[in-house]
Amino acid sequence: MPIDLKAVTRKPPETVRFYVKRFDPETGRVWWQVYEVKTYRGMTILDALLKIKSEIDHSLSFRYSCRMGVCGSCGVVVNGEPRLACQTQVAEKATVSKPEIRVEPLYNFIVLRDLITDFTEFFEKHRRIKPYIIRRDLGEREKPTLEYSQSPEELSQYYEYSLCIMCGLCDASCPVYASDKLFLGPQALAQAYRFIADTRDEMWALRLEELDKEGSTYKCHFAASCSYVCPKVVDPAAAIQRLRSILFKYKLRLYRKKVSNVVPPMEVKAKPTPLPPEATVIENVSLEKLEEEKPLIPIDKLIE
Amino acid sequence: MMSMVRPGYLSLIQYVSAIILIFLISWHLILRFPPLHGVESFIDTMKPEILYEEITVYGVLLVLLLVAAVFHGVNGIRSMLLEWSSNKYWTLIVNLLAIIVFLVLIVVGIHTVLYVTPP
Amino acid sequence: MTIKSRFKVLDNRLGVKASFLPIGVTIAGNPERLAFILHRITGIILVGFIAAHIISTNTLAREGWEAWIEEVRNLEGLNPISLLFIIAMGALSFHSINGIRLIMVEFLSLWIGRPEKPKPPYDPPSLKSFQRKAIYATFILALIAWVAIIYVMLIW
Questions:
Q1: Which strands sit side by side in the sheet containing A81-84, from one edge to the other?
Q2: B3 has a chain A CB within 8 A of its CB
Q3: Fewer Cβ neighbours under 10 Å: the N or C end of chain B?
Q4: By residue range, what is the domain housing residue A71?
Q5: Do B82 and A214 touch (CB under 8 A)?
């Protein structure tokens, strides 16, 4: 999500009213609770929630861990938009004319208590696309002795999608995930593309077979809300479109994937590559000798 | 019944029919442009003589347009309805209804093209 | 005893209304969502129109040309039937022009930029590439096409 630098660095209003949607799992009661919080410059929504918990209401429960947008635990809906609580400034959402912020649990998830949501289904769907590299050579995969080759260009094809922190904001904003329980969701599909685009992965056909089912990739209709809310700029919407066009190519048997092999260790001296047939060899010059011959001027003299 | 067809192919046909429809619908609309037939107004382009010639000469294209449009529409609505519930019976009812509506509209449309009488 | 049987849980799924309302995003930041919603609504309108169109054109095979001329006269001037026809034409112009964009984006995965390393101001590639311009063009072109169709239908 693009950041509005002016709004982020503004000083928030003195006190902000927080409307928090709460849920009691024992009675099943749902209600909006209002808290008045004194703010300071640079206060995030998570700071405010922590302040409420320590000073006003100890029973308010929410999930958080790193406080700096790395762990992806603190996803909540702020003023109707899925956000990471730790990456959203109070000044961004509350203005002097309307010092109010509504905080809700993530949409499209099952709420366990207050702002805590159940991620079982989310992780189950992530697991379904086999989020790991699969190779045919099992021995090399389990006990690696060498490295797989990969050029920087090949890395850049999927690097962006590997930044996912599994915060669930994309699924919370997806209009199809909201109604379809079979839909894998933007997160799982983007990760599927991340492993299919990875040249080290060999079993892409297995993954494509899994994705070629009712309720998978074809249910995406490019509303692009997932890309819009993603805090890590993973861009799941683009990943799913690429995945779908790969799937169509695969169904028409047009899809070919370049799979990289292991690279021999650097220490092993490679055999000299033979000259192409059209190359002309100068008489009286032996290539093997030329490689072994010492330079005419010794290197130490050149340095002097 | 519908589950025998892999959804991938249905989805593929959905996009292919969309590409066909873009060309055929533009053609279908341009034929209603008055100066093309040298008449006064939009209503006059649907005179019996003009329409009869159109249906007899371009019948194949009209049937292709019919099949593409009905498939694209019915499959679109079907996948939208399947999104809204994943109940087993709901899926069955929606698929059956989709097949019935598809066949009925195709039959009615082909009847129009085949049984049109000269004016 | 599992947790779910002892305690109540709240299903926070938005359901069908997310397909028709831009919940969770702002339209200004995410016009793709507006295009998605309009594509759905116009699609539903068009299926109704196609069914009506196929059944109504069947008149000339069933009842002959006299009945057909009677039916065509309904489209003359402004009346409830020609108004419905105009709405269907608006739906058609949006659905087809947006459909061209969707074929490029979804079917051929073009117009969505290249994967790149995130850098400030953190705009995702697919939301700043050509398809974003194509959305604004879609709205404008669809409006122009609709006005043109109405002009040919009513004023020509």
A1: A30-38, A15-23, A100-104, A75-78, A81-84
A2: yes
A3: N
A4: 5-117
A5: yes
Chain B, nearest residue to C14 by Cα: B84
- Nearest Cβ partner for B7 among A176, A179, A214: A214
Domain count, chain A: 2
Does A71 lie in the same domain as A55? Answer: yes
Q: What is the pLDDT of residues A19-54, one digit of tens each?
A: 999 999 999 999 999 999 999 999 999 999 999 999
| C-alpha to C-alpha distance for A173 and A170, rounded to whole angstroms | 5
Q: Which residues of B touch A219 (CB under 8 A)?
A: 79, 83
Q: Is the pTM of this model over 0.80?
A: yes
The verdict on residue A44 lying in a domain is yes
User: Are A20 and A91 in a shared domain?
Assistant: yes
CB spacing of A108 vs C12 below 8 angstroms: yes
Q: What does residue A89 show for φ and ψ, rounded to 5 degrees?
A: -80, 145
Residue A157 sits in the same domain as residue A95: no
Could you give the ipTM of this predicted complex?
0.90
Contacts of C73 in chain B (CB under 8 A): 43
Q: How many domains does chain B have?
A: 1
C47 token code pair:
């299926």
Q: Distance (Å, rounded) from C-alpha A66 to C-alpha C105?
A: 37
